[in-house]
Design goal:
The complex is a heterodimer of chains A (about 525) and B (about 250). Chain A is α+β, with helices and mostly antiparallel strands. Chain A is built from 15 helices and 20 strands. In chain A, helix 4 crosses helix 6 and helix 4 (about 75-90) packs across helix 13 (about 315-330). The radius of gyration of chain B is 19 Å and the shape is globular. The chains are: A alpha+beta (about 525), B alpha/beta (about 250).
Chain lengths: ~525, ~250
């Protein structure tokens, strides 16, 4: 067959729908969403039904569905719970590729010979995965979806489109990929910038995009457009000019003493992933499929194959290695190795010429970034996970809410971290205008605010002070109030009795020259911040 | 027109004042033709370019730090307004690619730092509240000084003289700047000490208005080349949260 029109091997994709919600114990009927970097990463069926969608900001999602439960993403648990499922699939085929926790795929040719037909293969797969899920997440799991098609991209979409039910499945017949793909929206290509342009050009479906001539697409969109065009036409995204990678591209690290704790091996894994990526880049190659291999003190050999439709960058690779180690070391006893790991190896299993993805003009990460990443990794090694944190913008009315600190997990240039409000973000009503206080107290100190007759200053239900403040007493030390501004009341989440907050803010400048932000909540004034 | 504007080049290429080039060992005074290639290479290596010996600071601070923030030095920001001074010191450097870490200051106001121009993408916050921290404090700060250009430290307890000496030496060796928030916990004097005097807040009036700006005089004193006291009148911060000239 002409390689340029090769649709890719016939593939079966197993998807566990809403995996990040399932591992957090959310039933499909409950409205819930998972947040990552301040945006919705996944939403349950009930939440999607009322308009919550991926990529929305938390506030927007809560506006559409006020009763939604907001959960933080737990990537470690996702990886840990999925590993037994993949291990169970090894009964069906020895070569399972994991693309992310909650989704994996394998070629059907081998197991088909064993089981006799696609229907039998689907039944067997559903049975194996169902049994593994019963153990891994308990009997309330929403099951899995199976899709079979020519090529992995189409099979993945077929699995998404598969009907509900404990093991819904959809089989796209041989040669039927273009017809199946034609009505799908261009957004499924997973390239938001490209999809945006295509929609504005009037090409809303994959069928319309695939009908363009390949030469025109390359001329306008380059190598990335070409890959997307092939996918839209039901062909394999990366044409199989795939070479067998030379064996010396494998990288390994020896762990001495043997390691059985994830935090101790995670940083070694990260350095390994970066070295692996740099070696490949030096040869003008990029990896689309990698085998993570570990050896234990008792001579056990663990291996798992990870694949991505795009190209695995250094940080994506490091994530996958971390997830895999999480699955092995913290998984259920059945898949856990019996001794510590002594060696970790990364083998490139499928490489393609590196195209399209170019680092920034001055190099992806500057030398300063790399030095800082090493120093911060060392501090994490000294003080433990979670001791180094990076600011992330969340938005809010008070200085303490606007920016939160998230633990450093991957590299310093993590994608998805938002450190400033997006330029199109609407203003928060009721936010204090700049300047913001330079010291925001982690433990606000109780304070007494007194009027000219020594009585405590109170605020009535309409947000009016009982008298002008004259004296302030903090930590037993009294100062006179030189000037003050406010009060500004805030009434947040009045619809939720558990998280309802009512408070009043007041700026006070004392005669010692210090300006403070006082907050009255539940009848008690506290110094929330100091304009240091 | 471009004399104080930083030009957006990659890290370490700040424009500094032209007379900076003539000071200490950057270019040898007699400009004879180099006799060999090896000698030319050696000449090119002696001393770092001016931009690499100092981190850029905002033009607003030019009167206080005419040479920029010298690499390898220790700076103390003391008294009320210390954090605002620290923000103004690190803003331009972080915005041009340097990394900064804040160690042991749970009250660090991130929103105010962002308003003052600090690039939060280049800021890490190290939490020192754990139980094993007191023993490792020195090792943590030393590791940061080795890898980051700017390290802001707010020690909870008295720093031992040996630790202080070792950290200052490490900063000198690695070309980092150690910024001490609050100076009471340190046994020795920093190379440069910044403090506010006569700070007055403007804006609020008996319930009306809001805090708008703080007018203050910044006093810079220190050792060596900073021995001569310098003073500058600043708005720290102004109504947008940015340090600026009145």
């Amino acid at each position: 067959m002409n390689p340029a029109s090769y649709p890719g091997p016939r593939t079966l994709v197993v998807r566990c729908p809403d995996w990040s919600l399932t591992v957090l114990g959310v039933a499909p009927g409950d409205p819930a969403l998972v947040l990552a970097a301040g945006r919705v990463a996944a939403a349950s069926e009930a939440a999607r039904a009322v308009g919550v969608a991926r990529g929305q900001r938390r506030r927007e999602a809560q506006g559409r569905c006020p009763e939604v439960a907001v959960l933080e993403r737990d990537e470690a648990a996702e990886a840990r719970r999925f590993e037994p499922v993949v291990a169970a699939l090894e009964d069906v085929t020895p070569w399972v590729e994991v693309s992310r926790p909650g989704a994996c795929a394998f070629g059907v040719r081998g197991p088909l010979r064993l089981l006799g037909g696609e229907a039998a293969l689907l039944d067997r797969t559903a049975e194996v995965v169902g049994a593994a899920l019963d153990v891994a997440v308990g009997p309330t799991h929403p099951g899995c979806r199976l899709g079979v098609a020519d090529g992995r991209f189409t099979a993945d979409l077929a699995a998404r489109a598969a009907g509900a039910g404990i093991a819904g499945s959809l089989v796209v017949p041989v040669g039927g990929s273009p017809a199946f793909l034609a009505p799908q929206p261009v957004g499924v290509l997973g390239r938001p910038d490209l999809a945006d342009v295509l929609v504005r050009l009037g090409l809303a479906t994959l069928g319309a995009f695939a009908a363009l001539s390949a030469a025109d697409v390359v001329g306008r969109f380059g190598a990335e457009g070409r890959a997307a065009h092939r996918l839209a036409a039901g062909l394999d995204g990366t044409p199989p000019q795939v070479r067998r990678p030379p064996p010396d591209l494998a990288v390994a690290v020896d762990l001495d003493p043997p390691v059985d704790r994830i935090d101790r091996v995670a940083f070694a894994a990260r350095a390994l992933a970066e070295q692996f990526h740099d070696d490949l880049r030096g040869r003008g190659l990029a990896c689309t499929r990698v085998v993570v291999e570990a050896e234990t003190e008792h001579g056990e050999r663990l291996a798992r194959c990870w694949r991505d439709e795009g190209v695995l960058g250094a940080s994506a690779l490091a994530d996958r290695v971390r997830w895999q180690l999480e699955g092995w070391l913290h998984g259920p006893p059945a898949v856990r190795p019996t001794a510590g790991l002594v060696r970790l190896t990364l083998l490139p299993d499928e490489v393609v010429p590196a195209t399209g993805h170019q680092a920034g003009f001055w190099g992806g990460a500057s030398a300063a970034d790399e030095r800082a990443a090493r120093a911060l990794a060392r501090v994490v090694g000294l003080l433990g996970e979670g001791s180094v944190r990076l600011p992330e913008w969340r938005g809010g009315r008070d200085p303490v809410d606007q920016l939160v600190l998230v633990p450093l997990t991957g590299g310093v240039g993590e994608v998805g971290r938002v450190d400033a409000p997006p330029s199109d973000a609407p203003p928060w009503p009721g936010v204090l205008p700049p300047p913001s206080p330079a010291a925001v107290h982690a433990d606000p100190v109780p304070a007494e605010l007194l009027d000219d007759r020594g009585r405590p200053v109170r605020v009535d239900g309409r947000g009016v002070l009982s008298a002008a403040p004259v004296a302030l007493r903090v930590d037993g030390r009294g100062v006179h109030v030189a000037a003050w501004a406010g009060p500004w009341p805030v009434d947040e989440r009045w619809w939720d009795p558990r998280r309802h907050r009512r408070r009043v803010r007041l700026q006070v400048v004392a005669d010692d020259g210090v300006a403070r932000l006082l907050v009255l909540e539940a009848g008690c004034w506290r110094v929330a911040a100091t304009y240091d | 027109m471009f004399d104080t504007e930083w030009m957006g080049l990659p890290d370490g290429h700040a424009s500094t004042l032209p007379d900076d080039l003539s000071t200490e060992g950057c270019a040898p005074a007699p400009r004879s033709r180099p006799r060999s290639l090896a000698e030319a290479a050696r000449r090119a290596r002696t001393g770092a370019p001016a931009g690499e010996r100092a981190l850029p600071v905002s033009p607003v601070l030019a009167g206080l730090l005419p040479d920029g923030l010298r690499r390898g030095s220790t700076v103390g920001v003391v008294g009320p307004g210390g954090r605002s001074l620290a923000f103004s010191l690190i803003a331009t450097a972080t915005a041009t690619g340097s990394w900064a870490a804040v160690v042991g200051d749970p009250d660090f106001g991130l929103a105010a730092a962002a308003e003052a121009g600090v690039a939060l993408a280049h800021l890490a916050v190290v939490d020192l509240s754990g139980p094993t921290v007191s023993r490792q404090w020195g090792a943590v700060v030393a590791a940061l000084v080795a890898g980051l250009d700017l390290v802001l430290v707010a020690p909870r307890r008295q720093v031992r003289a040996t630790d202080a000496r070792r950290l200052a030496a490490r900063a000198r060796e690695r070309g980092s700047v150690l910024i001490r928030i609050g100076d009471a916990s340190w046994p020795d004097r920093p190379d440069l000490k910044l403090a506010l005097t006569g700070a007055t807040w403007e804006g609020p009036e008996d319930g009306y208005g809001r805090l708008r700006c703080r007018r203050a005089e910044v006093v810079a004193t220190g050792r060596g080349r900073n021995a001569r006291e310098r003073r500058a009148l600043l708005l720290l911060p102004d109504a947008r949260g940015v340090p600026s000239l009145p």
